[in-house]
Design a protein that fits this description.
This protein has helices at residues 25-32, 62-75. It is elongated, with a radius of gyration of 19 Å. The termini are far apart. Helices cover 29% and strands 0% of the residues. It is mainly alpha-helical. The protein has one domain.
Length: 76
């Protein structure tokens, strides 16, 4: 017997992502209210907001310096 698993069938799933750069979480939430509802007007849908970090968001240290070196070597 073959089943799809614990998730909705792919024909029932609408998924994607958008990356936006904002100053605050409130601004991110404000942006999500502008997105069109992929399920159509009047249908419930869910938008998940996640914060991404950059190296500058972390305290300086050996590990961060190693990542900076890796990043520089990829860009050269």
């Amino acid at each position: 017997m073959l089943i799809d698993g614990p998730f909705a069938e792919t024909k029932e799933l609408i998924a994607g992502y958008t990356l936006i750069q904002v100053a605050t979480k409130a601004e991110a939430v404000e942006w999500t209210q502008r997105f069109p509802n992929p399920a159509g007007e009047g249908n419930d849908t869910e938008i998940e907001v996640r914060q991404l970090f950059e190296l500058d968001d972390f305290e300086p240290g050996d590990t961060i310096n190693r990542f900076r070196d890796l990043e520089e070597s990829k860009n050269s």
